[in-house]
Amino acid sequence: MHIPDGFLDLSTAASTYAVSAAGVGIGLRQVGKKLGERQVPVMGVMGAFIFAAQMLNFPIAGGTSGHLIGAALAAVLLGPWAAAIVMSCVLIIQSLLFQDGGLGALGANVLNMALVAPFVAYFFYRAIRWLVPGQKAAFWAAFVGAWTSVVAASSLCALELAVSGTSSAKVALPAMIGIHALIGLGEGAVTVAVLSVVAATRRELLEPQRASA
Questions:
Q1: Angle at the Cα of 26 (from 183 to 75), degrees rounded to 5?
Q2: Fold of 10-206
Q3: Segment 46-82, tens digit of pLDDT
Q4: Predicted model pTM
Q5: Exposed end of the chain (fewer CB within 10 Å): N or C?
């Protein structure tokens, strides 16, 4: 889902940079005020895991690529703001050191994967947890949150490409949503698998992270 350089027009790149900078700035303040001690090592582990998962990507029609995101897993374990910071750090490192996603498109990539994805995932996760209690429901909530986060982020990516004139919405939206609807199933399965291990070994990490929400 990383957008390369040259695929966004100047106005789209600038506006997404502005929104992402504001979002990351708010996230840093929220995390700085409310970050718990147990979250610090989890943030590091999450960053390493997501970095590795996102390096495995493949091209999709419309000028971008598909891969697992990891935003839902980070949001469930850390809360949406801390997840946004972790995701932003991963995306910045990928762009600067590995040219995975263009520097000019970094604002859009951060907006899609570091801001929209974790907040969409967390919203659906908390909504389902509120409606349906129980541990099994928590796993289903994580699965739904992961799937919706991938589809939401890919839809926004397609719209950015369409607005920039890189690819028409008729091409970009079906290509991105269709592929990422399938990727979302894998994302949901990986998210549930990791959370199952966490539930068996460090159950306290699955408690709601209200401090960072």
A1: 30
A2: Arp2/3 complex 21 kDa subunit ARPC3 (1.10.1760)
A3: 888 888 777 666 565 555 556 678 999 999 998 999 9
A4: 0.86
A5: C
